[in-house]
Write a structure and sequence with these properties.
Layout (H helix, E strand, L loop, with lengths): L2 H4 L3 H12 L5 E3 H7 L4 H9 L6 E3 L2 E5 L1 H16 L3 H37 L1
Antiparallel strand pairs: 1-3, 2-3
Helix pairs in contact: 3-4, 5-6
């Protein structure tokens, strides 16, 4: 096996960083968010002003929770891949997030039901 095949790929590194940045305790600057989305700071500001990205202002600077990274990347990807209008991309991301939330809630309910059935069978 060659040395280069053992090195982490750019995608692997970005995936690891994304997982770490999704922590609620991590905050990104405007420039960091833009760079992570492979977009310019103006792109982030436009989405921010349109209400498409959540952020907090502190001492005249915008700060984004780590979870905003996933939303921003999805917006950027939809806009690039499909030449989507920012509002349409945001609606699509809203739906993706809602489906993910519903799936998580369904899994929780299924686990609760399974635990209930096991308790009834045991008793």
């Amino acid at each position: 096996m060659s040395t280069t095949s053992r090195l982490p790929t750019h995608a692997t590194v970005l995936q690891a960083l994304s997982a770490e940045l999704l922590d609620d305790g991590v905050w990104l600057s405007l420039e960091e968010l833009a760079r992570s989305c492979r977009m310019g700071p103006d792109w982030v500001l436009e989405r921010l002003e349109a209400g498409l990205l959540p952020a907090h202002a502190q001492q005249g600077q915008w700060h984004f929770a780590g979870a905003a990274l996933l939303r921003a990347r999805r917006l950027a990807q939809l806009e690039r891949s499909f030449d989507a209008d920012p509002q349409l991309a945001a609606l699509t991301v809203d739906l993706i997030e809602e489906v993910a939330d519903l799936r998580q809630r369904l899994q929780q309910m299924q686990a609760q039901m399974q635990a209930l059935f096991e308790a009834v069978d045991a008793g």
